[in-house]
């Protein structure tokens, strides 16, 4: 029996062989919080009849359903690969000491996720989501903070009847953080950036409801150009970023964390356009630039590459 609070919770995922068909989760994460929930579309027939003062319960039906929510966690030096694979749509084998992820098609790549939710008395209720896709995700780090990830999940189903899997975690795993981070612009290190984040919208169609499926959705598919945006805060110590913004020139931006025991995580955007900011004088204090940006495809380089250096032998 677990502790009867979030302290006793667990979260794991595993890649499905067949879409929306439950598999036992095997990769477990130390997470910060999650908000996955079951969504059902309710329809009620009016059914006017003599003496009827309320709608009848027999005329309320569930016509479609799904599950959605976010998973937030500190970015670990071990075990992150499988989440990155489903987020990016890329399932590489390890080359040397690293996995290299580029954007790919997420079709036929779904996963099962299971959250163990403790009741007050310590009994853990398994909340199992099937047919999961990462609809969007965000990676970043704040000033003096841990590197974090937010993964938004769209799932075809949710049940509490699947047995709770036994959790196991990587031995001696650590986490990436601010002191390990560095930013480059066109390959040159810049030292005035205080925080950085990038958000990827995978733009998947999440409402594929068809007759004959008993209300369940068909597999989500990419439904448009991916959208990659981000933001950073920089001390106004020079005009490097300002010049890029004013001229609307393209820049390659990379955030790299050099972790413990040979671990590393790098996020490279090959063609960024800055959308803001112009420096302003708000008063007597120092001036920072709140830069926002959009990433594009330059026709030559991968628009986004994530390299994960880890002791893990597989995703």
Question: How does this model look, in words?
Answer:
It is a single chain. The protein has an 18-stranded antiparallel sheet that branches. Strands 14-15 form a two-stranded antiparallel ribbon. By secondary structure, it is mainly beta. Helices cover about 5% and strands about 45% of the residues. The radius of gyration is 23 Å and the shape is globular. A hairpin with a 2-residue loop joins strand 11 (about 180-185) and strand 12 (about 190). The chain has one domain (about 5-40, about 65-160, about 175-210, about 220-310). The model has no long low-confidence stretch (mean pLDDT about 95).
Shape type: globular
Distance between the termini: 30 Å
* Average predicted local confidence, pLDDT: 97
State the domain count: 1
Give the helices and strands as they follow along the chain.
EEEEEHEEEEEEEEEEEHEEEE
Helix share bin:
under 10%
Computed structural class: mainly beta
Strand residue percentage: 35-45%
Q: How many β-strand stretches?
A: 20
Rg for CA atoms: 23 Å
Continuous helix count: 2
Low-confidence stretches: none
Biggest sheet statistics: 18 strands, antiparallel
List the topology elements.
Elements lengths: L9 E6 L11 E2 L4 E2 L2 E8 L15 E15 L6 H8 L9 E5 L8 E8 L5 E18 L5 E9 L1 E3 L21 E5 L2 E3 L2 E9 L2 E2 L15 E2 L4 E9 L4 H8 L3 E8 L5 E13 L11 E8 L8 E6 L6
Antiparallel strand pairs: 1-2, 1-7, 3-5, 4-5, 5-9, 6-20, 7-8, 8-9, 8-10, 8-13, 11-12, 11-17, 13-16, 14-15, 16-19, 17-18, 18-19, 18-20
């Amino acid at each position: 029996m677990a502790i009867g609070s979030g302290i006793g919770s667990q979260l794991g995922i595993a890649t499905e062989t067949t879409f929306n068909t439950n598999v036992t989760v095997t990769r477990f994460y130390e997470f910060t919080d999650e908000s996955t929930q079951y969504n059902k579309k309710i329809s009620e027939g009016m059914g006017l009849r003599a003496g009827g003062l309320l709608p009848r319960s027999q005329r309320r039906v569930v016509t479609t359903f799904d599950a959605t929510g976010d998973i937030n966690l500190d970015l670990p030096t071990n075990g992150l690969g499988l989440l990155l694979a489903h987020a990016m749509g890329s399932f590489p084998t390890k080359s040397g000491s690293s996995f290299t992820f580029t954007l790919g098609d997420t079709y036929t790549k779904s996963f099962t996720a299971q959250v163990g939710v403790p009741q007050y008395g310590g009994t853990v209720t398994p909340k199992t989501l099937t047919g999961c896709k990462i609809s969007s995700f965000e990676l970043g780090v704040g000033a003096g903070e841990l590197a974090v990830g937010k993964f938004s999940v769209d799932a075809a189903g949710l049940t509490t009847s699947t047995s709770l899997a036994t959790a196991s975690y990587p031995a001696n795993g650590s986490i990436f953080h601010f002191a390990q981070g560095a930013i480059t612009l066109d390959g040159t290190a810049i030292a005035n950036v205080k925080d950085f984040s990038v958000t990827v919208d995978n733009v998947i169609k999440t409402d594929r409801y068809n007759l004959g499926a008993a209300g369940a959705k068909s597999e989500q598919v990419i439904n448009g150009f991916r959208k990659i945006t981000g933001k950073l805060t920089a001390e106004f110590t020079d005009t490097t970023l300002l010049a890029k913004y004013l001229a609307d020139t393209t820049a390659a931006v990379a955030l790299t964390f050099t972790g413990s025991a040979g671990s590393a995580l790098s996020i490279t955007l090959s063609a960024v356009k800055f959308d803001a900011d112009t420096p302003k004088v708000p008063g007597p204090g120092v001036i920072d630039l709140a830069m926002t940006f959009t990433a594009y495809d330059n026709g030559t380089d991968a628009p986004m590459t994530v390299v994960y250096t880890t002791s893990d032998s597989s995703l």
